[in-house]
Amino acid sequence: MAELRANGPYVWITWLTRLLVGEASCEWAAWFQAQHESWSWSKVPSSFDHVGWQLAHTAKLNTVHAELEAEGLTVSLERQNAFTLKGRAIAIGGKPDLIARSTEGAIVLDVKTGKPSASHAVQVMAYMYAVPRALPEYRGLPLDGRLVYTDHEVEIPASAIDSVFVDSLTSLLRRLGAADPARKVPSTAECGFCPITQSDCPERRVHQEDVPGETEDF
Ligand code: SF4
User: Which of 28, 109, 111, 138 is at a distance of 20 to 30 A from 211, taking alpha carbons?
Assistant: First the structure.
């Protein structure tokens, strides 16, 4: 049986991004993970090739790191950038790939090896919102963002952190931090990538090919 988190609800920024841009709809999946200790519930085994992804990601990260240092910027890496930002209802955690700092300001960078997606930009924007609030060394510094893909880059200006973005982010955080369960939206597309098993989510939808049925006459 899943146990409530001893220190209150907690989310990783990466759990929020697809919900914020409408690429995912089942808020319950993030709510359940936010509310419960990770060790206390069983997970669907992942088929994602983590090793291949990690090798490609680390290689690109090292290249970008070297380029930024060659430009004279001071660069900090993933674990150095880890933060927890505490709210009244929930805490959020993140670990930006790189933060590059100059005398004028700083840039939060995230390296992506796959296809571009709106959720990537929102991930960087959430870091731009949280980093100056959570890490004292960036308090008051103008913070821009940059997405680095294998063949191009996308700049995200500090002005992107406007009231529309902040309202969307904080409303979602409040829903995930509430004791009342968030909206559950079962679909084969989303359940297929969800780590929560049928024992915690009886509505979990199996892939259509796994459901026995008649073949239509067309
Ligand atoms: S299994 Fe499906 S319905 Fe259940 S939490 Fe995950 S995405 Fe939502």
Answer: 28
In testing the pocket of ligand 1, which one of 23, 204, 207 has its CB within 8 Å of the most ligand atoms?
204
In a domain? residue 216? no
- Residue whose CA is closest, atom 5 of ligand 1? 29
Q: Read off the pLDDT of residues 110-147 as tens digits, 9 standing for 90 and up.
A: 999 999 999 999 999 999 999 999 999 999 888 999 99
In a domain, 95, yes or no: yes
pLDDT in tens, 53-72: 899 999 999 999 999 999 99
Please give the distance, rounded to the nearest whole angstrom, from the Cα atom of residue 121 to the centre of ligand 1: 24
Can you tell me which residue has the tokens 């780590």?
A: 195
What is the number of structural domains in the chain?
A: 1
- Alpha-carbon gap, residue 12 to 92, rounded angstroms: 6
Tell me, yes or no, whether 152 lies in a domain: yes
Is residue 218 assigned to a domain?
no
pTM, two decimals, is 0.92
* Ligand 1 neighbourhood includes 182 CB (under 6 angstroms): no
> Does ligand 1 come within 6 angstroms of the Cβ of 190?
yes
Q: What range defines the domain where residue 42 resides?
A: 10-206
